[in-house]
Design a protein that fits this description.
Elements lengths: L3 H17 L3 E3 L4 H11 L5 H9 L1 E3 L19 H19 L38 H4 L1
Antiparallel strand pairs: 1-2
Length: 140
């Protein structure tokens, strides 16, 4: 069951991003698309992240001078999405080699991550990349 407050945060963040009119926003992800993505990459979106992406899918054309931009979760085989999803694990493995202890989070925008929903992940426990913000309302 999804947390109502987290869902409200995700919807509000999607509304704010749409108002800024800075990125192309496609129709939101469907439940079937979430299942496909989560099975493919072995993680679950946090409730606020899920609500954000269900309200509308922000997409970027690809790499820009500041990083990857928004992941296009509908292009599961794209090299850019593959890099975005692989980045936290690669970072985590590098951190393990240097003695840090963190968890892997799904990508949001560029190199930013949000905390996943509090459920077991299907990936082994690995170091956690830097979490820039805890809530979507602080990000958008």
């Amino acid at each position: 069951m999804m947390d109502g407050a987290s869902v409200a945060l995700g919807i509000e963040a999607a509304r704010r991003l749409a108002e800024l009119n800075l990125v192309d926003i496609q129709p939101g992800l469907t439940d079937a698309e979430f299942v496909t993505i989560e099975r493919r990459f072995g993680f679950q979106f946090a409730d606020d992240h899920r609500a954000f992406l269900a309200a509308g899918l922000p997409v970027s054309p690809g790499h820009d001078e500041a990083g990857w931009g928004w992941p296009n979760w509908r292009r599961l085989d794209s090299p850019t999405l593959q890099e975005q999803v692989a980045w936290p694990l690669a970072t985590a493995l590098d951190d393990i080699q240097h003695g840090a202890s963190r968890a892997v989070h799904p990508p949001t925008h560029r190199h930013h991550r949000l905390r996943p929903r509090p459920r077991p992940l299907h990936r082994p426990r690995v170091p956690e990349p830097k979490v820039t913000v805890a809530f979507w309302r602080d990000y958008v």
